[in-house]
Amino acid sequence: MLVELLGLRKLVGPVAVLGLLVTLYLNFMHWNEEVVVLDPIYNDMFVVNKMTMVFNAIILSLAVFLVFMGANFYKDEKKHWSDYLSIYIFAVCGAILMIGSHHLLMTFIGIEILSVSLYVLAGSNRTKVESNEAGMKYFIMGAFASGILLFGMALLFGATGTLHYQKLNTFLLAFNNSTPNTGFLYTGMVLILIGFFFKISAAPFHFWSPDVYQGSPSIVTAFMATIAKIAAVTSLYLLLNQVFVALHELYDILLILICIATICIGNILAIVQTNFKRMMAYSGISHAGFMILGILAVDFNHWHVIAYYTMGYGFANLVGFGVAIPVFKSMKNENVAAFNGLFFKRPILAVALTIALLSMASIPPLAGFWGKYYILSAALSKDLLLIVIIAIINTVLSVYFYFRIFVAMYARKPDNTPIEVSSSYKFLLIILTLILLVISLMPDMIAGCI
Amino acid sequence: MIALEVVDILSNPVNKYVYLSIILFCIGVMGVLMRRNAIIILMCVELMLNAANLLLVAFSAYQGNVEGQMVVFFVIVVAAAEVAVGLALLISIYRNLSSTDVNLLNKMKG
Asked: Does the residue B10 lie in any domain?
């Protein structure tokens, strides 16, 4: 926006990309130090360590590609591009605050920065009723979830007298059933968890997600499916492992039930969808279920398993939406039928989408497979056999609805509408697909590095 | 360790604030779930946030711990931002549909 005030509208995109890349570099400045010792940031409400660096790097690199995709998506409305871009950057800031947060207030503010930006973006297509509807639904559901989360925080504060992660953890470790106010503590914890389940669209709280994904502009859907979901999952993972780990016997059963429900509902409802974005929403719900399984099974020393899964998920989704956006734009239709004969019209796009969806359907040797493999083996070592069986059955089910798109792309006859793609956009998609392949082919190396 | 000595909340004078804010929170939740007018839903969301604020302030004053009051300042700012965005969305809906009834927002199903 600042750049626009100076009348340099063309520069906005490059400046944003440059800024994100510089942030990415600064992020890694302390990488090689054994123990990162920094002055407490914001009164020790924000921490930097290897784990947050890796998750930040995932978020930032996804954001860089989203800016490129957005520059293409908003080609026809150059006038507002800088406004949209600044809101995207705000949302990325919120995501980073959520990940580095070490205090529940900071987590709350991060969530709010991310979600308020997304409410605006979801409703940003003002003349279309669907977009308005998506924005309003997302707003009501998001604000409702924030209210529940905040009330949970208040109860927790009443019971423990602090909201700082480290202090809460110390308190809870010394905690036993004879301590007073256990009711407040448990209710607070459950309310906070419910707030988070809303944000990551886990099963009983997933109703908003398909409508919002369908109605929002496609690029915003891509943002929600990748950055927003990864940030919320990471934040929940850190919260549970840094704060509530002493109470894990209590929340484990809750997480197990929600995990089973999320995986099943996501996959079963995805089968009957005809709209591509809606289908991706349900597939995102089932992936959220796998991430919850990861949260449940992966202990804090093996966080790179979660990082690897989210990385594979994020890039696969980005490639998927990257292909879908120009197709929808040219076909003026967002159904699976829009992909009919894509392979004969635009082979590069079709191949990129194939790789992305194969990864999401977790076909070896792609990233989705390795991510699920790591999470499921962690779950097996924790004796969660039942969930593992359910998860594997659902993975097989999920192959069905991804293959519907392959059938449309390779077996159906193309119509005469040409798909317009600029060569720079094709280049971007090729790079994204290559990144996905690199992640896929070297799971041990990447998981070992981080 | 935490300096706070933990006492049972429900047997203390602060419990009246706790009951009040729980009642307010429940009114807010019921309002969001049952009312169909978007403006009233917005108000109910505010009620939920303010119930939490009241609880935080009460605990904070009771425990002599300013952390809760600090949280409340931030929450007030966040709530204001949220309402601003909510009203903006509402205006764009009103322009398209000439109504604030959320039941009309049913274009997408499945």
From this structure: no
